[in-house]
Amino acid sequence: MKIERTSIVLIVVILLCVLLTQKASADELYIVATESTRQGSHNWFGFLEFEEVPFNFLLPNEFGDYKEEKFIVIMGSINESKDIKDILSQILTEGEVKWLSRKGNGNLYLKSDIWTQGQKIAVVAGSDQNALKKVRKANKEEWCDIIIEWFDLEGNPGSLLPY
Questions:
Q1: How many independent structural domains does the chain possess?
Q2: Are 79 and 125 in contact (CB under 8 A)?
């Protein structure tokens, strides 16, 4: 009788551990960018890999099937691709899109609940690749904190040093 009870408790503990592990790892980051933006952001992707953030890279034309995911980063220059501009126009206000279209402008925007409740979206955008690079570097601590918060990571300032 005691062995049966111990076995049942052990099975329940194992099942709980498996379920909690699956829940903890269920969230993934979906990153939408063109291939040229991805190549220009290799240190940013390196940070995600270093912190072991589970992510999926999507080209802008692949985004439609994933727009209801919980954690999304849109990264790009508004004038580089019609697809990126269309996505940004769905997330940002008309004024934000207009401002981003002006030469040299760039910004980090945080949006929530755009396509589904509980959704969090970070937009790192600029008027061109140079403006995008500047805004990404100028806001590196902020987007680092965002990713750490979203994925409940322990902050590691050392992972930003090579950036």
A1: 1
A2: no
